[in-house]
Amino acid sequence: METTAHINFIAASYAAAVIVIGALIAWVTLDYRAQRRTLTELENQGVSRRSEPARADPTIQQVKEQAKEQA
Amino acid sequence: MALSDLANPSRFLRLANQIIPWLCGATVLAFGFAIEQAMSAPDDYQQGATVKIMFLHVPSAWLGMLCWGLMSVAALGTLVWRHPLADVTAKAAAPIGAAFTLLCLVTGSLWGRPEWGTYWVWDARLTSELILLLLYLAVIALWRTVEDPSRAARAVAILTLVGAIDLPIIKFSVDWWNTLHQGASVFRLGGSTIDPTILIPLFAMTAAFTLLFVTLLLAAMRNEILRRRVRTLHLLQANAVS
Lengths: 71, 242
Hints:
The complex is a heterodimer.
Chain A (H helix, E strand, L loop, with lengths): L6 H38 L15 H11 L1
Chain B lengths: L8 H31 L14 H28 L4 H31 L7 H22 L3 H15 L2 H11 L19 H46 L1
């Protein structure tokens, strides 16, 4: 059987692989950028994931230092 | 680092950020070698040059099944151990598994036309592989239907475990039923029936595809963890406003 006899089927298969793999790579890359961008925007707005105390409240370290000073 | 350390999403993110660039490099090198091997492989004495489609079809089929197997382990992790990364793994893996299963069906169809004279027959191997694709689509749809990720994870885990029944059916369909699809020729008792000049490129391509799969999975898991953080921040923001 000649190499070129079914070249269209071979080429179509490799083209399909390039399209599917390319789409997966694009999906993962674009999704990463979108999530990072949204996360940065939210953090810049002051929204914090952890249940941090308000800025006016002292941190644990500050409380310890105050306690040392009082002692 | 113990495996249990990876249960912490922040630690997983740090590790993924370090590993992914190296995996990308290794995948590119592996594909470079595998494609060179595949293109220089001789034609098959019966199938001619169409045997080159096998270098795409077999790795895609392998990854479609491997991915569902991985999702089944993750489903156990969700239902039994409630591992924090189990449902992240399952959700990230589903679109990747669906893509490789689709590629398996497309390349199989394009291989079938010159060899069998038809793009499609409803034989057991092809039908069970199509069912796997439909199962992937059902899982993706379920993730999108239920808004709460933890509730969706439990429903998806059950569907995944039920769907795992399809894996042995795909594997042994060519033995259990009379199919147009050929029997096992790579991993079988008595050794492979494929000549090393074709088997080596096939293994090289399978290794490259598997590296690509691992890279994509880690990247998709990283995205999913970030998506959940975004969701949490949106909820906190909404609570603060109200």
